[in-house]
Each structure stands twice: as C-alpha cells, then as structure tokens.
Design a protein that fits this description.
The chain is mostly helical. The protein is 57% helix and 0% strand. The protein is elongated, with a radius of gyration of 51 Å.
Amino acid sequence: MMNRGGMEHVQLSNEEEDDLYGGFNQQNTLFDTDDLYDDVAFQQAVKTSHGRRPPTSLKVPGGRLGTAVRGTARQTMPSSMGRMSTAMQGEGSRPITAVRRAGYSSKKDSMDPLNLGTKQTLLETKEETPEEKVRLLEKKVHELIEESCIANERGEHQLALQKAKEAERTDKELSRRREQQESSEQANVDLAYLVLLNMAVQYEANQMYKNALDTYNLIIKNKIFAFGGRLRVNMGNIYFKQKDYSRAAKMYRMALDQIQNTYKDLRFQVQQNIGISLVKLGQYSDAIVAFDQVMQEKPEFRTGLNLILCYLKLGDRDKVKKAFMRLLQVPMNYEDDEKYRASTNDKKYNTILEAIRDDSLRKIERERRAVAEKCIMNATKLVAPAVQESGGFDWCLEQVRLSRYSDLAHDLEMGKAIAFLREKKFDQAIEVLKAFEKKDTRAASTAAINLSFIFFLEKDTSQAEKYAEVALTADRYNPAALTNRGNCYYAQWKCNK
C-alpha cells in the first residue's frame, strides 16, 4: 500500500494542458506553393540574376520546408534572394547571410579573414627621404666599383668593364638628384674621381686604348681633381704599349713635374720609365742621366743593368767597369737564409719556422733574390767580353768575390766551365771544375756531376763513376748523379746494379 506522504511530491497531468506534439499536422498557408505562379513579387525575384542561380538543394513541392521550435510555430518570409531565411530559437530572427564565402574576395582567391588586404597594416614602411636616397645611391656606386675591381683581379675584364659603366651611370643619376634637390651638401669629388679612374683602368685592361686615353684626359683637364696630373704616368704606359716611345717619354716627364719630392719612390719609378723610353728611342746619353740619378738616390738592380747597357752602347769601357761595381753594391734588402734554418733545441722556434718558411713574405724575398742574381749574372756575361784587357771574366769574378754576393762566384765559375764545354775545350773545363773539390758541398756536388759527364763522354768510365760517387756523397738522392752512375754501370755491363 502506497504511503500517503510519498504522494505529496507527485504531480498529475492536467487533462486540459496543451498536447506537446500538437500542431504538426496543421499546414501553414504561407508555405502553400500553389499560388506562386500568380505571385508578382516572387516572379519578379525569379527573373533577377540571383533568382536564376541554381539552388543549393532541391525541394520537393508540397514537402516540409522547415521545422518548428518547440512551443513556437516557425514563420519565415521569402527573401530578396529567392531563398527562405532561417529562424532562431526564441524571439528575433537571424540576419540574412551573404552569398560569397566568408573570408574570400571576388578579385583574388586568397584567404583574408580579417580583410587586411584592403586596409593599411599597422607596421607601415617609412618613406625614404631624399637625403637617404642619395646615400643609398652613393653606397651602390661604391659596391659597383668594388665588384669591378674584383672582376678585374680575377681576369674577367669584360665583366669588370660592365660594372664600371654601371657605376658611371649610377653616379650620373646621383648628380642629377643632387641638382634637383638643390641640397647644401657638396658633391662627392673623390667618388667622381674614383668612378672615372676605374673606367679608364678597365678600358685599358680591355685594350680599348683610345677610350682609356680620352677618360684620362677628362680627369686631367678637370681642375677639381687635385692629383689628376699623376695619371699622365698611366697615359705614358699606354703609349709605351703602342710603341709610341716619344709620347710615352713626354707623358712621363710631364707627370714627373707634377709629382712632389715627398713621393720619392714614385719619382724614381717615373725616372726609370723615362730612361727605358729613351733607350727605345736610341737616346743613350739622355737615358744615362735618368738611370744615374736613380742609382744615386735609390740603387736598384734593373736600373744598374740598364746603365751598363747604355755605357756599352756608347763604348765607354771605363764607365762600364764602374757601373758594374756600382751594381755589386746594391743592397739586397732581405734577411739572410740563416734565419730560416731550424734549431735542434727550440721546438717553439722550429714551429714558427715551419709557418714562415713558405709564406708570402718569404716568396717575395726569393723573387727579389732571383732578380738580383739574374741581373748580376747577365751583367757579368756582358761586361767580361768588353774588358778583356783587364782580364775579362777573371776580373768580373774577382769583383763578385769581393762583394756581398760572393756566393754567386761559384755559379759564375760553373758558367765558365759550361762555356768551355760548349766550345769543346774539355781540358780547360776539367781544370775549372776540379777547383771546386775543396769548396763547399753544394758547389762541389755540381762540379762532380759535370766532371762525371765529361769523363763519360771521353769514355773514361772509371773516372766518370768516381765523380758520380762524389756527387752522391754530397746528395744521395741527386737525380743527375744517379743517372751518371747508372750510365757508367751500363757501359761496364753491370746491368744488375
């Protein structure tokens, strides 16, 4: 039996209350489609562009077009687009939606949900001022000149010329902008000078000598370029390449007049160029004046050799001898080879030597030494026949021994022996070479190789083998000495050795 107290919270349904599912079988006359063909407003909407648009879904006439929310009948009105609007739960209606997709534009098919494409961004780029544009153009000119110089250094002369022309065009644009702005800032004279100079250099590198000369003249005639007169040296070099030695000498002299005395090295180089041009013209006396002035102020091996040549052409033997002695007094200006010899005790010093033994400075020293030795050797060969009354080669050899280049005396004696060999004076050659036996190891090894070869030609294989062994004693891996010993063994049918 049910407790009466439990029935207090039970609510019985009211028979008079509305049915929850009522109203679904009732049809709203608003959705009746039978009279649409007679509806003027609907037919006018159908004739528009939106009305002709195919519907997204097919609705069956007479079917249910929408649902109703609980407790509320759904009522909709046809929109101007020919599409029924939806209803929201509760009161009020939802705004009509757009036909286009959200976030898309009709002009470009790119996603832009926030419509940033049609509005200015918050971080706008600041507009450049005229002064900043001028600075950017100057920077571009510098970059083009740098690229032109790098291309020239790599040997790409055509590319270097193109970059130089582009730099010139940019510099002209820079000048126009300055004129338009009427700025108080003065034009960059150094930059304009650099642009023209680079153009002339690139023309010369491409062997366009006429264009190069015109550009150099343009710089020289412009008074705002203070040091433009020095470029006459470059013009002289072009004339020298064209073998127009008279104009080359003229340009060198005009350049020398405009170079101050403080630039001594440059003045000496120009004077040397003047002397060489005069030698080409056959004016040896004037060339001697130029070379002699250089030898007095800054002695140099090539200049000393040229001075000897001029005196030889004039036939002045006494001055030839004096010029040869002046050549032997020219300093080498490099460190002695003893500096590069390793020490057995100091490991740190040996490590440093390994690093500097073949560096760029060491290569420069070797090149200077090679130039010095070549000039002295050539001068000896030229002077010896001209001073036969004074002993000729022996006199030159003695002067070399007394100079700071005494180590070259061995090479000169070796050259003397080789000269005897060429003249087939074997006895005299053997006499000269045997004198090396008591000298330093390197010279003795070279002499022994030559002696071994001479005796082999004379078919004296025993003596040839003897001197081949002497050479190998000094340098066991000497290829020439090994070849001589192999020839001796082959001549003696000692094929196994």
